[in-house]
């Protein structure tokens, strides 16, 4: 919200000429975003660390399982430093994190970095496919609704609201029931071949299409009332060309501000979607890690999601500033 207010203020009070004198690349803005990004990463890891510690149940009890011979739990606590005060464990974790050490999995006894690296690409593949489909659906719905009048606009707005309101796991279960169990067009689970990616991609893309479609349509409606668009219409340019070449082009810029939230939503939704469809990826290892209180693995997944959010938001904020010269003078 703060960034959006900055952009609005810059648009109202900074001329392109003045902005151009400040340079094309917004170094000050980059440094501020990097500082904010570090705070976001720290806050995400800190919150996750203490929430996991507050969950009832002893990590030593879970790791011991059915074995209950004398001294076992004490040995587990000593091995992993679980007998230390929580604040000391937290500081030790931050110290290792600064050096790039994500720790070792309590359950798998493997470096957490290796575990994440082995599963992350399946999740990235799903998230990218869902993002692409979501953007295509959002653009198609927005353009179609504006070309077909108020009835189509109201209908598509309702559809977008449904897309954003229905939980991801419900959509996944419905698609599984219809297309896997009943029609048997797609596999029920796994990640073998392109057809195993279709239903998870649709499941994850629909909320993205709903949110992005609403923003695009509202932005396009405002753009259609701008003087430069009215001037283009007055020259006799076809309505479809005006809509796609001019209104859509300018509507994409405000929609870019949602990219960080959309990517974060995709990663969070991917965890649920992978669980529903039995796909390998960060979702499956997160579910197992939370169930077993495998704290280092859960913290690594949280850190990865926060890092992706920060990187995408920072890059798009910089791109937004470079594209719109009026923002280069904002502080």
Task: Describe the protein's architecture and organization.
- The chain crosses the membrane at residues 34-55, 126-146, 158-185, 197-216, 255-277, 297-323.
- It holds the Pfam family BPD_transp_1.
- InterPro entries: BPD_transp_1_N, MetI-like, MetI-like_sf.
- Keywords: Cell membrane, Membrane, Transmembrane, Transmembrane helix, Transport.
- One of its GO terms (biological process) is transmembrane transport.
- This protein is mostly helical and 331 residues long.
- The protein has two domains: 29-102, no CATH class; 119-292, MetI-like fold.
- It contains 15 helices and no strands.
- The protein has helices at residues 2-13, 16-21, 27-54, 59-64, 72-80, 86-98, 112-147, 149-165, 168-182, 195-224, 227-234, 239-255, 259-277, 282-291, 295-323.
- Helix 7 packs across helix 13 (259-277).
- The protein starts with a helix and ends in an 8-residue tail after the last helix.
Indicate the CATH architecture of the largest domain: Orthogonal Bundle
Largest sheet: none
Task: List the domain count as a whole number.
Answer: 2
| Average pLDDT number | 78
SSE-based structural type: mainly alpha
- The CATH superfamily of the largest domain appears as MetI-like
Shape: globular
Q: State the distance separating the first and last CA atoms.
A: 15 Å
Kindly provide the name of the CATH class of the largest domain.
Answer: Mainly Alpha
What is the oligomer described by this structure? single chain
Relative helix content: over 70%
Number of discrete helical segments: 15
How many beta strands in the DSSP annotation?
0
The secondary-structure element order is HHHHHHHHHHHHHHH
Unreliable stretches covering 5 or more consecutive residues: 4-22
**CATH topology type of the largest domain:** MetI-like fold
Strand content: under 5%
What is the radius of gyration? 24 Å
GO biological process, one term: transmembrane transport
InterPro entries: BPD_transp_1_N, MetI-like, MetI-like_sf
Membrane topology: Multi-pass membrane protein
Subcellular location: Cell membrane
């Amino acid at each position: 919200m703060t960034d959006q207010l900055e952009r609005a203020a810059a648009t109202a009070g900074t001329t392109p000429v003045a902005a151009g004198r400040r340079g094309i690349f917004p170094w000050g803005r980059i440094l501020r975003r990097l500082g904010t990004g570090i705070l976001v990463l720290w806050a995400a890891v800190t919150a996750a660390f203490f929430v996991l510690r507050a969950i009832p149940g002893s990590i030593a009890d879970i790791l011991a399982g059915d074995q209950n011979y004398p001294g076992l739990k004490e040995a587990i606590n000593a091995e992993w430093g679980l007998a230390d005060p929580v604040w000391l464990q937290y500081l030790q974790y931050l110290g290792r994190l600064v050096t790039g050490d994500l720790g070792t999995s309590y359950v798998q006894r493997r470096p957490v970095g290796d575990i994440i690296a082995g599963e992350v690409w399946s999740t990235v593949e799903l998230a990218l496919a869902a993002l692409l489909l979501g953007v295509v659906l959002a653009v198609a719905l927005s353009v179609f609704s504006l070309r077909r009048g108020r009835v189509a606009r109201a209908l598509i707005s309702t559809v977008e609201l449904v897309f954003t309101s229905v939980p991801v796991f419900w959509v996944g279960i419905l698609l599984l029931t219809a297309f896997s169990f009943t029609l048997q067009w797609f596999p029920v689970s796994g990640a073998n071949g392109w057809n195993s990616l279709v239903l998870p991609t649709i499941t994850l893309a629909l909320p993205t299409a709903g949110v992005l479609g609403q923003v695009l349509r509202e932005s396009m409606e405002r753009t259609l009332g701008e003087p430069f668009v009215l001037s283009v219409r007055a020259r006799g340019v076809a309505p479809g060309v005006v809509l796609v070449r001019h209104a859509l082009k300018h509507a994409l810029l405000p929609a870019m501000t949602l990219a960080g939230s959309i990517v974060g939503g995709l990663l969070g939704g991917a965890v649920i979607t992978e669980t529903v469809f039995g796909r390998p990826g960060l979702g499956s290892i997160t579910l197992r890690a939370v169930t077993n209180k495998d704290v280092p693995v859960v913290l690594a997944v949280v850190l990865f999601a926060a890092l992706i959010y920060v990187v995408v938001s920072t890059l798009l904020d910089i791109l937004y500033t470079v594209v719109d010269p009026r923002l280069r003078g904002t502080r």
